[in-house]
Amino acid sequence: MKTKNRELKIIFMVTGALFALFLVYPTVRLLLKSILSENGMTMEFYHSVLTQKGFLKALGNSFLIAGVSALLTTGLAFFLAYTIHYTNINAKFKKGIEKAAVLPMFLPTLTYGFAIIYSFGKQGFLTKLFGRQLFDIYGFNGLLIGYIIYTLPVSFLLIHNTMGYIDKKFMIVSRIMGDNRVSTFMMIIFRPLAGTLMASFIQSFFLCFTDFGIPASVGGKFEVIASVLYSQMLGSVPDFHKGSVVAVMMLLPSIVSIALLRYLEKYNVRYQKISVMELPKNRGRDWLCGIGSGLIILGVLSIFAVIFIVPFVQDWPYQTGFSMEHFRAVFQDAGLMGVYKNSLYVALLTAVFGTLAAYGSALITAQEGTLIVNTEQMEAENLDMPKSIKDLANPEYKGKIAVTDITSSSTAWLLIQGLISEYGEEEAKEILTDIYANAGDHLEESGSGPLKLVRAGEVAIGFGLRQQAVADKEKGLPVDYIDPEEGNFTLTESVAVVNKSEEKNAKAMEMAECIIKNGREELLKSYPIPLYEGESVPETEKSGNPKTFPEKLTVDLLKKHQELSESCKK
């Protein structure tokens, strides 16, 4: 007994230490970051965030979409679990439902967004199948579909497992007592599941409330709080104080949920013995539940079907012939395992050591902005080729373009630099307002977002990185690039040295110099922009209209241009 108690104490201490290290400590740091400035304690960060344009709307949107998604998910999961436990349909079909319901759990949420685009988008698989786009996928509709698929496995497992512990013989007792079917259902099935159903709703709600992957793909102009957190913490100018405030606001509802779950514990039902019985025959019930569950599973699988189809297609949706080229390209990529290992190393080191301050940096890559077009879409929609960034404001391009939001990605800064440099701030503001109006739901969080939409045929025109468009064109995709009349502006990226100690800093600086001197030749193949003396690239890869912004590119200037951008959003 003493040995067992000692083991329990050790387990408790280790578990407690892990929770303190990875949960309590980060939470306390988060809270302190939200109220402490260089001058001491302040509520200024909370005031700034709560009065920020669009924050309360994004918060309300998050509650709305998360609540609706959680409610529908719980209902669908209950229906699937009921079909398995309370019908006499084929056992193999039941097993298929059980396995298919948890399938989405094994895919990252970013995959859901792209699966929805390639299924229901303008050039999507189901759109092609039905001959028209069934509905607009950007905004509430796309988020609802993505969130339901995302949370269905968790909700199903909760309800399915609990339903397995309900004693079905109480149904016979209920009928003997004279209860009708509805009363029997409510007392014998629904009542014991009340706590689990609420737990399912809460769990699904917070998975939706905190997810960023799906909004990043199909959120459109329906901004949610997870997108705000991304912009504050990982945007073009990270603000960790305001980001901490947003994170705290996202944590507050979890406190309410914990209290609710504790309250719901009293509704849990425990049976001393679970009886096995043959369910009464009811062909109407079996057919209804079987067809309904089949349609639910078919709906989920049909969205993911495109993931298993597109890799075998030459160039979806333009060249639909069978091809194994994509697989050969992936497996012949010598750097694939290196990238995989690097991802593991970075994840491990980030978790263990955290973030350290940068000591010094040197330019290592540069990126240029350009106009990107889908040549087949331009021809199909009879659109004129744009010659300048200003052209994107033309009414004929409404709903046909995609650009990036400068609050989330510095790629958008290249576009804004071009407008301000050529037309001045006032006219640039007018042009940008019209560009954002034309983009509509396609004001993207990611710098590569516009190019991905151009590739998929969701839009005809985008603004993105020149080298990516050049690479796509060389691959034979229906993608071309146009160097805008305003010019190709450039942003540089750097290699930094972590500030740890004087002794280590000197060695680290030598390593950084080695990377720059020996790595630039290879980097120029992907980023063909000469930065140092003696560097050159082929004439075919040089930008057609290189320009430099007249002012020094500082964080303050970026913030100024972000404010200009925000004022252009309607």
TrEMBL record:
InterPro entries linked to this entry: MetI-like, MetI-like_sf
Record's bilayer topology term: Multi-pass membrane protein
Gene3D superfamilies in alphabetical order: MetI-like, Periplasmic binding protein-like II
Family annotation (Pfam families): BPD_transp_1 (PF00528), SBP_bac_6 (PF13343)
Subcellular location: Cell membrane; Membrane
Matches recorded under PROSITE patterns: ABC_TM1
Primary location: membrane
Protein name as catalogued: Extracellular solute-binding protein
Organism annotation: Mediterraneibacter gnavus (Ruminococcus gnavus)
